[in-house]
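Researcher: Here's a chain I'd like modeled. Treat it as a single chain, no partners, no ligands.
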Amino acid sequence: MTRPTVLDMDLVVVPREADATMWTAAAVPLGRWRDETFFGSKNDAAVLSYRAALSASPYPTAWDDVRKYVEGLEEELASADAVIAAQQKDFASNNIRNAENAHRAEAAEARIAELEKRLADAERLSEGMEAASKLTFAAQHNPNCPSPWLVRLVGPSGRIDLKPYGNGFPRVKHETEDVLGFGKTFGEAFRAARAYMEGK
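Model: Modeled as a single isolated chain. Structure tokens:
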């Protein structure tokens, strides 16, 4: 960053007021006002001495110090500007990362919502499957029975009876409760089992 300073201005260095050395150098021709050669060669030494005294003024040196000081400030300012630029770059990078993280968080939240919905659907499906499993367990086909439609219910004992039953026994009393569904389809047998489970 470039900023105008006093170094960009046109300044005139003003010498200090004459001191004793300057007056001594200038006093040589003071008593020779009538001498036409006042500014001649025999007074050149005094004039040169006076000019040397003027050139020894502390003002140019002080101005150099001021210039160096301002240049130092300019360097510090440039360094500070570089630090600010780096911080702004980091801030922009952080904003980009924050935006990416926010996008990822939104995507994660959407994914969580989707999984929660799937979980709720799975729970509802599980409940339905559990109910169907109970119903299926209650109305099972006896593989040892010669009738393909013989369905029985599990009784209070909880034991599974695999004894074969003939076609002439639509309802048979045995250890695991009545046998239902003889001569019925599976749909009819399941409806009978559901009615039995519901106490109808």
